[in-house]
Design brief:
By secondary structure, the protein is α/β, with parallel strands linked by helices. The protein has 17 helices and ten strands. It has a single domain, classed as TIM Barrel. The strands form two sheets. Strands 1-2-3-4-5-6-9-10 form an eight-stranded parallel β-sheet, with helices on both faces.
């Protein structure tokens, strides 16, 4: 299918960061209002600077977030960014999204964590009313920071009111998820889902710690689970103990191929194992991670999956249904959208 046809297909996004998807023009306008100095002064140059295509590592990839967070300094800026994210996702054919935000990053600007969350939810509500795209929030704490419990407590205040899950993100190596067990407990006991970044910048053991110790229900990225498998001619032929648990227990893996290549997990899209994992029965979904830093949208990821990883349109329908099944939002809403997805995809 061509890009136009792929864009028209309904999609679901489980792993997309709000501060990784700002419009470049919005960054420039907000920076001008604050007197904030950016690394480039015009849209084309700034877009080029933000693009992390040759970062080669997760820490270098994450450096660009200093400037997107840096221009989200008050509630109105957070509301605007959230609204525009919803509009942009809808334009890409996304009918359901769980968007991640890190309220702790805005505390140095004098914002309360709850204020950030409330502003973002207001922006999502406005975009949802305008487009019909269902938007929920996942509140994220960072492994390298010491405020994860406070972030979880703030998130729980909005459980049932737009926040559906808690997440741990940031550098994996040297910052194990189980350093934040209290935050995971607060979130789970408060009624939130739990998804943890793992198997992106570090190996399968980070997935194991997230599942076995923190009791995560989903894994953000998780793509390096392939290191616990045996592959022959690009296909998975045997599973290690952890990989078998992930597959057989239907643990959702929120995979973002372009981001994985840009952070150095894989050399290129042709060597990315998304297709092999899907064909071996793993519960995978397609995601963008950071639309600005990666220079992509979900249509781009759909095209990459079909052009480089052997997925058919029927496979795209399957991974979209996987995402809706694995979502943390209202089940009746997700069930309705699953019916719409089945009806919209051509038979192949």
């Amino acid at each position: 299918m061509d890009t136009t046809s792929l864009r028209a297909l309904p999609k679901a996004e489980l792993h997309v960061h709000l501060d990784g998807g700002l419009r470049v023009e919005t960054v420039l306008e907000l920076a001008a209002g604050y007197g904030y100095v950016l690394p480039a002064a015009d849209a084309d140059s700034l877009r080029t600077w933000f693009h992390r295509g040759r970062s080669g590592s997760l820490p270098r990839y994450l450096e660009a977030f200093e400037h997107t967070v840096g221009v989200m300094r008050d509630a109105e800026a957070c509301r605007r960014v959230a609204y525009e994210a919803g509009i942009d996702l809808a334009a890409d054919g996304v009918v359901y999204a769980e968007v991640r935000l890190g309220p702790g990053l805005h505390v140095p600007f004098g914002m309360a964590r709850e204020e950030v969350i409330e502003a973002v939810l207001d922006g999502f509500a406005a975009a949802q009313a305008e487009t019909g795209t269902v938007l929920y929030a996942i509140v994220t704490a960072l492994r390298q920071m010491d405020d994860s419990a406070a972030v979880a407590r703030a998130a729980v205040r909005f459980a049932g009111s737009g926040v559906v899950a808690f997440d741990l993100a940031g550098p994996e190596a040297g910052y194990p998820a189980d350093d934040h067990l209290e935050a995971c407990r607060i979130a789970s006991e408060g009624g939130l889902g739990l998804t943890i970044h793992g198997g992106e910048g570090d190996g399968p053991h980070s997935i194991w710690r997230a599942l076995a110790i923190c009791r995560a229900q989903r894994i953000g990225h998780g793509v390096r689970i392939v290191e616990d498998t045996t592959m022959v001619d690009g296909e998975i032929v045997a599973l290690g103990a952890l990989a078998r648990r992930v597959r057989d227990h239907r643990v959702p893996l929120e995979i973002a191929p372009t981001s994985n290549v840009q952070t150095g997990a894989f050399a290129d899209l042709a060597s990315h194992p998304l297709g092999a994992l899907h064909r071996a029965g793993f519960n995978v979904s397609l995601n963008t991670d950071n639309r600005l830093m990666s220079g992509i949208d979900l249509t781009h990821e759909f095209a990459a999956a079909t052009n480089h990883m052997g997925l058919s349109v029927a496979d795209l329908a399957s991974v979209t249904l996987n995402a809706l099944r694995a979502g943390f939002g209202d089940w009746n809403v997700r069930r309705r959208l699953r019916g719409a997805v089945r009806a919209a995809y051509p038979a192949h």
